[in-house]
Specification:
Radius of gyration: 16 Å
CATH architecture: Sandwich
Number of strands: 11
Oligomer: single chain
Distance between the termini: 41 Å
Number of helices: 1
Order of helices and strands: HEEEEEEEEEEE
Structural class: mainly beta
Mean pLDDT: 90
Strand order of the largest sheet: 2-1-9-6-11-5
CATH topology: Jelly Rolls
Number of domains: 1
CATH class: Mainly Beta
Helix content: 10-25%
Shape: globular
Largest sheet: 6 strands, mixed
Low-confidence stretches: none
Amino acid sequence: MAELKLERRWIIQRAASALKPMSTYTRLYSDEQGESHFADVEIDFTSTDYAPPAPPLSLSDFTHAKQIGFMQAPAGWSSDWHPTSARNFFVVLSGEWEVTASDGESRRFGSGSALLVEDINGKGHTSRVVSDIDSLAVMVEMAERS
C-alpha cells in the first residue's frame, strides 16, 4: 500500500512539474529527537528589475552559500542510513533519486527537483538512484543558519 501511495505521489508531482514552474522545494530535517522528516516549502517570489533594461523577473530572496559542486552517482547506487555532513541544497539535473527519512516516508526526486537536506543530527536518511540512467546533481553547501 505504501509503495502504491509513493508511486501515486510521484506521478502527481511529475505531472504538476510539467504544467508549471517549480514553486516549492522539499526540506529534509531532523527534529529534537533526531528523527528526520520531509516538509514542503513554498517559494515566495517578488517581481524585480534584476538586470535592466531587461524586463522584470520574479525572484526569491537570496540565501548565503559556502560552496557549489556537482555530484554524479551511477544507476543503482544506494546508501545505508546516514545524516548529512552539512546543510546542502540538492538539485537533480538527470536521473532519479529515492530518499527515505527515518520516520519511514520516502519521496522521489527527478530532473528539476530540489531538496534542502538539513538532517545533520540523528539517524538521517537513505538515498538511492532509482533511474536506469546515472544521476547528475548540483550540490550547494549552505552557510550555517544564524
